[in-house]
């Protein structure tokens, strides 16, 4: 079987603060080690035959967090965070059996949820066609447009809860119980490794019953921003797309199209 794993970091085993997930920060190597621990446990469950294949896409910070030396030869890693576009369909196509989101977290402004945010910490809320989403929902929608279902999410307890509410039937593995913005009751790696492998072993059956998550176009993406440099940049580049000082509205034929509009304005 062929799988896509999107790799984030805030929702991996033992991570509870930004010093553990920001490249170059004091405890980043701990966080990176836990990322690889969780990833290798999931790969152990997914790679059950010589023909199995995994493509990783590193969505955390600069997209350079995965230790390539530790990967099985059946794994390819997309590093450096190249933009998702309608042309590349977020690097997914019909050859993939399913997508896994590893190390995710709850959407921004969810009370009591660990390290919650929406990609940038300046994004307060996001919605697609009126449905409030965070990173889990948006990634699932973009995969859905390529015909690929989201089969598993590994996260803290609140990220797992968000997944279950938005996408019933998707496998969830919680590696820690959220106790607030920067605190959690963490399971030790020996326990989370077993849970993650067990979840991965269920993915083949889940992929056969789950449908891609998608909305018919046209698509409307609404985003609310905190004051700051990102908002100022977007206001200068997408002036006609603002409704009020903090509310950005982007329209297009697909989720990937509207998200590409945001990515281009954010970075160029």
Strand arrangement across the biggest beta sheet: 3-2-1-4-7-8
N-to-C series of helices and strands: EHEEEEEHEHEEEHHEHEH
Percent of residues in helices comes to 25-40%
CATH superfamily of the largest domain: Dipeptide transport protein
Query: How big a fraction of the residues is strand?
Result: 15-25%
Named CATH topology of the largest domain: Rossmann fold
Largest sheet data: 6 strands, parallel
Structural class determined from secondary elements: alpha/beta
Any idea what the radius of gyration is? 18 Å
* Number of helices, counting only DSSP H or I runs of 4 residues or more: 7
Q: Number of domains in the coordinates? A: 2
Q: Which CATH class of the largest domain?
A: Alpha Beta
Q: Which regions contain 5 or more consecutive residues with pLDDT less than 50?
A: none
What is the first-to-last residue Cα distance?
A: 37 Å
Number of strands: 12
CATH architecture of the largest domain: 3-Layer(aba) Sandwich
What is the general shape?
Answer: globular
Can you tag this structure with a few keywords?
268 residues, alpha/beta, Rossmann fold, 2 domains, four-stranded antiparallel sheet
Give the arrangement of secondary structure elements.
Elements: E1 2-7, H1 28-46, E2 53-58, E3 75-78, E4 98-104, E5 123-128, E6 131-133, H2 135-145, E7 150-155, H3 157-166, E8 171-174, E9 176-180, E10 183-186, H4 189-201, H5 203-209, E11 219-225, H6 229-237, E12 247-252, H7 255-267
Parallel strand pairs: 1-2, 1-4, 2-3, 4-7, 7-8
Antiparallel strand pairs: 5-6, 5-11, 9-10, 11-12
Helix pairs in contact: 1-4
Organism: Paenibacillus oryzisoli
Pfam family, one: Peptidase_M55
Protein name: Aminopeptidase
